[in-house]
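Encode chain A's predicted structure.
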Amino acid sequence: MAPPPATDPHTLLNAANAALNRLEAANPGLYKSLTDAYIKSGLKNSASVQTQLNRLPAGSDKTALQHFFASPAALALAITEAIGSSVQGVGKVIAKGGGIVGGLPQNVGNAAGKGLEANVEPLAGIAGVLSTLTSPNTWLRVGEGILGLLLLTVGVVAITKSTPVGKAVTNTAGKVAKYIP
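Encoded structure for chain A:
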């Protein structure tokens, strides 16, 4: 009996990277078709991606790629790692070329480069945010918060509408509203 598929986004991403490297070496045309379909679909799992996956021969690489493309968290992790690598690369270029580019002093270039490299780590949290946004409990909490604010507003209005202060605020607001277009 085969073990159940991994669900950890890092494990899925590593397995997919290894499978893609083997596919690129064995069948560059199919590798290009699959990656082009993924990019053209807006970095999402789509029918065109599934069509290319179906062209793969049966085996562990096909299974690894199917599990990867079926996991929104793994797809989000792949995107954040790609963005992080790009930002890190830009940071290193700025750090090395700071004394040359635009006449910037070397220490300014180094500071900018190190700042960009340091900001790569928060990008890794995007995958966690995306998985939180898909959680039903998150939306239940948001709804409870909105309901609480609504009840609080109704209570404040009910308390203040019959008091002298509440009436003064209402009258003043009515007078000011006449002058606002």
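The radius of gyration is 27 Å.
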